[in-house]
Amino acid sequence: MPHPNDVLLGSQASAFALPVCDHYSGVESRMVKSLKLQAEFTEEFGACVFDVTLDCEDGAPVGGEAEHAELVTSLALSAPPGSRVAARVHPVDHGSFEADVATIAGKAGHRLVHLMVPKVETLADVERAVRSVDAAGATALPLHVLVESSGAVHRVFDIASHPRVQSLSFGLMDFVSSHGGAISADGMGVKGQFSHPLVVRAKVEIAAACHAHGKVPSHNVVTEFKDQDALAHAAHKAAAELGYTRMWSIHPDQIRTIIAAFSPSQAEIDVAVDIIERAAAADWAPVQHDGRLHDRASYRYYWQLIERAWRTGLQLPESVRQWFATADAPSHGV
Topology of 19-261 in CATH? Predict the structure, then answer.
């Protein structure tokens, strides 16, 4: 039986095949804890439900950038098999960027699932990052980029078009502060970031650019990390209203809430499974379900919903689980 990815998605089969949560940590003790927590969640959920991104940009002390890059490299190399570990380096115009890439991608590129490049302004910045990563020997390592200014938002479709870019994230706080006070501090909070027109526009542009080029839009952090209701509200709006399929976490307590918000409901899963089972039995010809006609256009939607259920660790019947037999194989860069 052909795999649904081959029938329905073709070359874009892996476009959204990322965990829905990307957890950031930059202090050594927290990085170690994050990797341990990832292993615990993988055992609990039966799938790796969040990435761990080891942070150089905000984690490295001034003057200690080289030592921090070595630490990140060591942690990536010592992560258990099957871990999904990434690293955030300094921006391309920072004095430590080249050294970060040479150390981390050069020594641990084969253990990384992606490299996050912050403060990307232009397509040329992406191309510079690719050259550096390739020079370090990690020629297949995907890049994630952080869009943090109005200029970058203006050029976001070009940035998203690069074939090595796998995901775009929104840097909310830098975006707000780049406006010189024109956007109030409320724009960085849970309420303001979903009501201020400039912030909402930036989020929508990033999501639209990602979907236009088959990339993953990743929503920004919620700094009110102790307020689970605020986090759940933000995650739900990002997923249900703004088209985001992934979100940042900056505290371990945020991970479960994000996963839950980006997970489909059991009712949605039941409908999707029924439709995909009927479609497969009909060799992907049109079928009827609950008085409605479905064909490959709607099959794509329901199959991607099933994929999201798998990535969030939800239980699926064996009829569709068979297609995920190798889904947890590590997807390293080189």
Answer: TIM Barrel (3.20.20)
